[in-house]
Task: inverse folding
């Protein structure tokens, strides 16, 4: 298997191309800063993307549309629990993760008990989460505790701390998918639910844990993002809905499920940030930037599909 | 086969009737020509967008770009169609055509529609920003007149909803072509074996979606008299919810145009109902979600009973 036939290579090549094209303009200056910013902002997209990837791996029709609402709710409640007091970072983290477990279980309950298509279940549930977030966020502007804000914006061994979190999570997800029984169950369920069930895979357990995982990932991303940007905002998760799906697909995971791709998610997350900063530095307005981003997403999908048919 | 499972349309109708009765109970003054007009004022563009989404769901795809597309159509209507009608018309036709091409492309290259439309949502909203970088524009006079006309007996929104439901019912359920189109969702391979060019059918379904998306954008501008690039972004999710509320399913070409229009009316009414309840604005979005869950729960209970009987 040559490097070019690995599906994740394309997102990394695209990210590298965007990086290089930006540096051409600045004639090589500011490369370190650009890479640092891409790693910082890409980390949030990568974390939610890893969660969305697990859900999409479950098979056709599985997608979590409640990621933005979960991010906002987790960040809001965590900041409220911490109320800017020093030394409460762990309390906030536990609150955020508890919100994630709660919304994940609620999503799955709707899907399982009401037999709703996941798209509708997570969409309807996200409206409720959004309301809870609005209600608890009323007129509040709580800053994260100083230590936590320093951690979220700080660096370790030259890399942003949030990128380290994203990298560790990516490695954990990769090991779990490739080496653990649960990971094999997940892939089997995504490839053919019926066959997996007949083969004795506890598919409902797999689905439940997957929907909880994606919500926990989203809540962690929300917690970090709020600490990174100095507070929670009601629309803080909005751009991560399309982003989470886009990084999964650009990263080479199959949208039909049963096949996931961890390194690709990171490559795509970097690409999504770098392409915007490349277009910015070439002086493109918001309109042109959007059109080109969309065109590139489609081009990558077409490239990936023609490669697949030839293989 | 029980009565309810054969007549899927009953549950959407009952949901709408219950919600309408509750609204009238809360606010008896809504039970008038003027009241109904206020309640369903914004239903026309939502109903058109829901029909557009239904065309895509009918062929087993899903359109995540519809909100951005309707916004773009609204921006074109408020600028080009108002200033230079001929150019505006040509642009709108080009938009419909590009939807048809998209459908053919998705079929020919076997691309996942959810991703292609996701990418297109960036393209549409980029173009909309390009045309109208800040809110503005104006509605063409004739469109404004059409959307605010006061027909006898029933308000404009109700009359329009009935016309939309009737026309699309004839087109999708009664006509031969509509049956084949639903067949593409049911089993594309057997439609192909039967000698139909599936690629052209898919292009047609997407083209129809583009047509109704453009109409939704025009209707929206007729009501609001101006446009901005984000005016209809929430229509993507609203339209999907409307199709499902109306008894449609994501797979198998099982859709109902009348149900979709009723679903759109129910969603519009839910928003008005909640403001009549004097619910704190904090909870209005959440209550809409709760109503959605409630209606779908009712559907589950009835279809379970149907399965047992």
Result:
């Amino acid at each position: 298997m040559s490097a070019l036939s690995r599906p994740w290579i394309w997102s990394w090549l695209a990210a590298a191309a965007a990086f290089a094209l930006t540096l051409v303009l600045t004639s090589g200056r500011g490369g370190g800063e650009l890479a640092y910013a891409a790693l910082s902002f890409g980390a949030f997209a990568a974390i939610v993307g890893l969660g969305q990837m697990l859900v999409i791996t479950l098979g056709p029709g599985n997608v979590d549309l409640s990621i933005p609402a979960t991010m906002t709710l987790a960040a809001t409640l965590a900041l409220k629990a911490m109320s800017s007091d020093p030394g409460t970072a762990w309390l906030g983290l536990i609150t955020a993760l508890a919100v994630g477990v709660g919304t994940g279980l609620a999503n799955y309950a709707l899907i399982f008990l009401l037999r709703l298509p996941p798209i509708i279940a997570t969409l309807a549930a996200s409206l409720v989460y959004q309301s809870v977030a609005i209600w608890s966020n009323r007129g509040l502007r709580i800053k994260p505790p100083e230590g936590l804000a320093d951690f979220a914006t700080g660096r370790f061994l030259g890399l942003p701390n949030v990128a380290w979190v994203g990298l560790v999570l990516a490695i954990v997800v990769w090991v779990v998918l490739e080496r653990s029984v649960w990971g094999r169950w997940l892939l089997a369920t995504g490839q053919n639910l019926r066959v997996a069930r007949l083969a004795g895979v506890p598919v409902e357990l797999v689905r439940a844990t997957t929907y909880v995982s994606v919500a926990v990932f989203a809540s962690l991303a929300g917690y970090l993002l709020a600490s990174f940007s100095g507070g929670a905002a009601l629309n803080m998760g909005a751009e991560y809905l399309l982003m989470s799906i886009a990084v999964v697909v650009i990263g080479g995971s199959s949208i039909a499920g049963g096949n996931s791709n961890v390194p690709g998610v990171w490559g795509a997350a970097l690409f999504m940030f770098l392409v915007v900063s490349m277009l910015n530095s070439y002086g493109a307005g918001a309109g042109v930037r959007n059109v080109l981003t969309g065109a590139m997403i489609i081009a990558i999908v077409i490239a990936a599909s023609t490669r697949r048919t030839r293989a | 086969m029980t009565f309810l499972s054969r007549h899927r349309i009953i549950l959407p109708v009952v949901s709408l009737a219950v919600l309408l009765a509750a609204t009238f109970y809360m606010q008896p003054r809504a039970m008038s020509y003027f009241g109904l007009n206020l309640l369903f004022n914004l239903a026309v563009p939502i109903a058109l967008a829901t029909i557009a989404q239904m065309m895509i769901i009918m062929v087993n795809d899903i359109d995540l770009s519809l909100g951005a597309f309707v916004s773009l159509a609204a921006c074109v209507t408020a600028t080009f169609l108002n200033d230079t009608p001929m150019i505006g018309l040509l642009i709108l036709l080009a938009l419909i055509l590009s939807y048809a091409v998209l459908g053919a492309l998705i079929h020919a290259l076997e691309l996942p529609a959810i991703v292609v439309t996701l990418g297109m949502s960036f393209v549409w909203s980029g173009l909309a920003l390009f045309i109208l970088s800040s809110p503005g524009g104006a509605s063409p006079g004739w469109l404004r007149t059409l959307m605010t006309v006061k027909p006898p007996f029933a308000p404009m929104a109700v009359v329009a909803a009935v016309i939309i439901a009737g026309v699309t019912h004839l087109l999708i359920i009664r006509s031969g072509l509509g049956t084949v189109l639903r067949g593409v969702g049911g089993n594309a391979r057997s439609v192909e074996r039967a000698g139909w060019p599936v690629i052209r059918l898919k292009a047609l379904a997407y083209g129809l979606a583009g047509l109704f998306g453009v109409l939704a954008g025009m209707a929206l501008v007729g009501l609001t008299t101006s446009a901005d690039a984000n005016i209809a972004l929430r229509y993507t999710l609203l339209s999907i919810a409307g199709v499902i509320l109306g008894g449609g399913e994501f797979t198998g070409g099982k859709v109902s145009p009348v149900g979709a229009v009723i679903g759109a009316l129910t969603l519009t009414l839910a928003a008005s109902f909640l403001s009549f309840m004097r619910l704190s604005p904090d909870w209005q979005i959440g209550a809409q979600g709760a109503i959605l869950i409630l209606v779908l729960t009712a559907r589950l209970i009835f279809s379970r009973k149907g399965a047992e009987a």
Residues 281-308 of chain B form the longest helix (28 residues).
